[in-house]
Amino acid sequence: MITSVFCRGILSGEGDNILPMKVLGLGTLINLILDPVLIYLYQIKGAALATVISQIVVFLVFAYVMIFKKRTYIYLNLMNFHFNKIIFLQILKLGIPASLSMLIMSFGIFFYNTILSMSDYPISAVAAYSTAHRIEHLFFIPLISIATSMVTLVGMFSGAKRIDLIDKVIINGIKISLLISCSFGILFYFCSHMILPLFTNDIEIINIGVGYFRIFSFAVPFITMGMICSRVMQGLGKAYPMFVITCLRIIVISCFLAYYFIIYLQKPINFAWYAILISCISSSLISVAWMISVRKNYR
């Protein structure tokens, strides 16, 4: 699985996102086909075995494409491998902040669930937040894809010293992302009462979830700007801003304000959603200013 992630990263870094999607889709299909049979034969071990088999197939396809078919621009030959401390440190410099950002998101969800469990509706609030979080991520998939592609495109044009194309990618990426995110915001605001019943039939959870989306919908464009700006800076070789902004948005502002509103001031549950909105607006403004500064200093 880890080797396949590296292969996918290499192909994406070269601008080929279609082939990794097809290979991963093949792995998912194999897993889906094997699951019923192997689970029937070996119970829970069968599910694990199906995953192992599908991941081996994915790895073999990537290995064939990159080593034997030589589909990539680079040629992988471990016989010529020499450890380079400078390159290794560069990889860590870009990789560790991004990994820590994902870790902070997980901690943020844990802290938020803890805070919500102390509200007036502990069980329903946590359930509504978890449900809403899953729903919003379904709609965020195209935005995450655009933000991720910004790393590849900005990195490619950065290596080619095409400053003009970097600016073009940033402007177009922001325009498209804002258009999509505003559409999602409108959808969340006006249609959340129709979307939530598809995931739960609990009236209280639905009502809390609708209240969440009525506030969160205004945060969607700001989250998008933060995502795009962070990924642009990562493409320019600056990964730590994403870590700092994520930490600021989730831990410093959002969790702190939610704790202050819900636990200290004993405010209604909607104030937890206002904390999210405030954190998204603040972090977005910081990320935009930071990206402009990084871009101006880039030569």
Give the gist of this structure.
The chain has ten helices and no strands.
SSE layout and pairing:
Blueprint: H1 2-13, H2 18-42, H3 44-68, H4 85-116, H5 122-159, H6 163-195, H7 203-216, H8 220-235, H9 240-264, H10 270-297
Helix pairs in contact: 1-3, 2-3, 4-9, 5-6, 5-7, 5-8, 6-7, 6-8, 7-10, 8-9, 8-10, 9-10
Explain what the structure shows.
With 299 residues, the protein is mostly helical. It folds into two domains: 2-80, no CATH class; 95-297, no CATH class. Helix content is 83%, strand content 0%. It has helices at 2-13, 18-42, 44-68, 85-116, 122-159, 163-195, 203-216, 220-235, 240-264, 270-297.
Which tags fit this structure?
299 residues, 10 helices
Tally of helical runs: 10
Strand percent estimate: under 5%
What is the terminal-to-terminal distance?
A: 37 Å
The protein's oligomeric status is single chain
Order of helices and strands: HHHHHHHHHH
Shape: globular
Number of strands: 0
Radius of gyration (CA) equals 22 Å
Classify the helix fraction into a percent range: over 70%
